[in-house]
Structure formats: C-alpha cells, structure tokens
Design goal:
Layout lengths: L1 H31 E4 L7 E2 L13 E4 L11 E4 L2 H7 L2 E4 L1 E4 L6 E7 L4 E5 L4 E6 L7 E2 L4 E6 L1 H19 L5 H17 L3 H10 L5 E5 L4 E6 L6 E2 L4 E6 L3 E9 L9 E6 L6 E9 L9 E9 L10 E7 L4 E6 L4 E2 L3 E6 L4 E6 L1 E5 L3 E6 L6 E5 L1 H12 L8
Antiparallel strand pairs: 1-2, 1-3, 4-24, 5-27, 6-21, 7-16, 7-20, 8-15, 9-11, 9-14, 10-13, 11-12, 13-15, 16-19, 17-18, 17-20, 18-19, 21-26, 22-23, 23-24, 23-27, 25-26
C-alpha cells in the first residue's frame, strides 16, 4: 500500500511539471511570435485565424526586433543560420576604376560649319539651271546657273568699249587704263572669272546670258530657285554641304559625365571593321521636355565619305579613367528609390538609400549614401528586403 502511494505521488508530480513546462513554453512562444496577413502586414493577431480585410489565412511570424527601436533607418537581424539559408554574400565598399561599356545610338548629321549657300550676284532672270535636284555633287568650277541681267550686259559692253579705246589710243593714256581696270574689277565683283573676262575680250562680243560656276565643292542639299524665276541681288540659290567632316548626334542620360575633352569611337554597320574617332563639339545644357536626356554633337572625320547623313551609328564614349566609389550592380535594389543593405555587425543589416551615376556591366558608381570601407550585401539583398517587409510590414518602412 505504501508503495502505491509513493508511485501515485511521483506520477502526479511529473504531470504537474509537464503542464508547468508546457505553459512556460507557450508563454515564451506567445511572446516571440504573432500571426499576420501576407497581403495586409498591418493586421496582427495572437491567435491563428482569417484576415478581417481579405479573409486569407494568417501566417505565423516572429515579432520584429526591439533592439533597433529608436533608429531612423531600417534594420533587421538575421542569425548566421538565416544568412546561410538566404545565401547572403558581402563585399567591402571601395574605390574602383569604372570604364563604361554602354553603347550610345547616334545619327549622322551634316556639320553646319561645312554648309555653303550660293547667292545671286546680280539682278536678273534665271535662264538656265544646271543643278535642279538635291543630292547632286558639285565640284569647284562646275556650271550652276545661267542668268540674263541688263545691268551685267551693260557692264560687259562698257568693258569691251574701253578695251577697244585702249588699243586705238596712246599707250600712255593713264585715264583709259584706270577706267579699263575699274571696269574689269566690276565684272569680277559681279562673279565673273578671269577666264570669262579673257574670253569676252577675245570674242569682242557681249553675251546676254552669263553662266556662273560653283566657287566650292559639295553636295546639293537644297535648291531654292527654278528656271524662269526673277531674282534680286543676294537671293539664295543653292545650298551646298561638304561631307569630309560630319556630326554624330546622340542622346545621353543626364547622369552621364561628359566633358569637353571626351573622345568617342564611332562604328557603322556599313563598315563594321572601321573605327571613326570623334570629339565633342556641343553638349546641349537643356533637357528635352519630359525626358532626362540631352543632345550631344560629335565631330567625326569622313574623308572617304562613307558616313552619310541620316545613317544610324554606334558611339562609345572614351572617358578618362579615374577611381570612383563603386559597388557591384547586384547590390543596388530598384525599389521606390535605389537602396542597398549594409552589414553593421555579425547579425544586423541596415537599409540605405543611395544615389548612383556611371555604370558598366558589373559595377555602378555611388555618389552618396554609403562610405568606403563599409560592408555591403552583394547577393541576397532582395531576400533581406522581403524578410524585412514580412517582419515589419510595408507601413513600417522608412522611405527617405
């Protein structure tokens, strides 16, 4: 009988101890966990159930850490096991030389400094037009137009009369010589060439139609007149453009650091094996309306005339290489703002907002937000952000 009493006492003690341990464990469990909705993280409950907003089943999560309360930034704590499961990798923020590899798409345009406009020297009627369409190539000395001008016709007759008078008179007649010289200069100012004046003197016959020739070479890009039109002195007739130098017009983002000393390499699909070297001649200080891009003009030598206006080309800026504060591109998260995660100690990670600039395939330049020597998360940053949202709720985030 005595043994039965002792056995019963031990059994009751074990049951009571088990209940006490269970209650203590349950209390600890309640203190470190809660239930929330994955779609509405602001909903919190001590017991499982359904979300009062969307009726989804609540999930069990750990309460957010109290050790970071009072901080202005976003913090999260992950133990070594959680970091291992998330594949967290880090690197030290340091200065690196970034050589951008991005290629800019450009368009060949006419260099405005290579454009010439042929204008009429005398008043008259266009009798003959030798160049009627754009795209034609004019060499220096090619005929451009023939014009009938009463004023020019009269000056030709005056020159012939003075030439005859000089031959008939005394060679010492200085007045006739001066008048003949002045008459010849007048014809030269009208635009006649020395050869035309010599032919006029030999033929001794004034022509009612005078042909004018191209003073320079180039492609005809615009014709302003037609045969039979009356023109005044100074009327624009034809616009020519040389293509031995051309512009490459390209659009770049405003964060690209382009200086006046920048050199560029230009590639064309028409001649992929040939590299054209160019330099910046214009950097538009004004942004296009509603866009964060600006216009560049790059002058390129085109002695072989292979680059034609309107052709699409590829431009590679050859920037001066200098070390800048940079991080791997995988470390930067594109959320509302560009952010990174910094490891502040063995288990704590802090979210930072950063401002970036130039980049290449692997690295991006950091202008502000982090400093050299800090430890940055290069792999697993998105998982850290997801864990932070799950623990703290979207409404708890600090968007600076």
């Amino acid at each position: 009988m005595k043994q039965k009493i002792i056995f019963l006492f031990i059994a009751v003690s074990l049951v009571l101890g088990s209940c006490r341990n269970k209650n203590e464990t349950h209390a600890d469990h309640e203190g470190s966990e809660y239930y929330t909705c994955p779609m509405h993280p602001t909903v919190e409950s001590k017991e499982p159930g359904a979300c009062p907003v969307c009726n989804m089943s609540l999930i069990k999560v750990e309460k957010k850490e109290k050790s970071h309360e009072g901080h202005k930034g976003n913090f999260i704590t992950l133990d070594s096991r959680q970091q291992l499961l998330a594949g967290i990798k880090t690197d030290t923020v340091k200065f690196k030389t970034i050589i951008p590899t991005s290629t800019i798409l450009g368009t060949i345009a006419i260099d405005e400094e290579q454009v010439t406009t042929l204008s009429c020297r005398v008043k008259g009627r266009i009798e003959k037009l030798y160049t009627k369409t754009s795209g034609e190539y004019l060499r220096k000395g090619d005929p451009v137009y023939g014009i009938y001008s009463e004023e020019l016709f009269a000056d030709e007759k005056e020159f012939l009369a003075l030439s005859v008078k000089k031959k008939q008179g005394s060679s010492s007649n200085k007045l006739v010589d001066d008048m003949l010289k002045a008459s010849k200069n007048k014809l030269l100012l009208w635009g006649l060439t020395e050869n035309q004046i010599s032919e006029l003197e030999k033929s001794k016959t004034a022509s009612p139609q005078i042909t004018f020739y191209a003073p320079s070479e180039g492609y005809v890009i615009e014709v302003f007149i037609k045969e039979g039109m009356y023109v005044d002195e100074g009327t624009s007739l034809i616009k020519l453009a040389k293509l031995n130098q051309v512009w490459v017009e390209a659009l770049v983002y405003s964060n690209e650091k382009i200086s006046e000393n920048n050199l560029f390499h230009v590639y064309s699909e028409k001649s992929p094996g040939e590299i054209y070297k160019g330099h910046l001649v214009f950097n538009n200080p004004k942004m296009e309306d509603g866009r964060k891009i600006q216009l560049l003009r790059i002058r390129v030598d085109n002695t072989k005339n292979k680059l034609i206006p309107g052709m699409m080309v590829y431009v590679n800026p050859k920037k001066v290489s200098q070390p800048v504060l940079s991080v791997p591109k995988s470390a930067v998260l594109l959320e509302k703002m560009k952010t990174v995660w910094i490891k502040t100690d063995e288990t704590t990670f802090e979210q930072r907002m950063v401002e970036t600039s130039a980049e290449n395939k692997y690295f991006v330049e950091i202008l502000s937000g982090i400093e050299e020597g800090e430890i940055i998360v290069t792999s697993g940053a998105y998982l850290i952000s997801s864990e932070f949202i799950l623990k703290s709720g979207v409404g708890q985030r600090h968007d600076h």
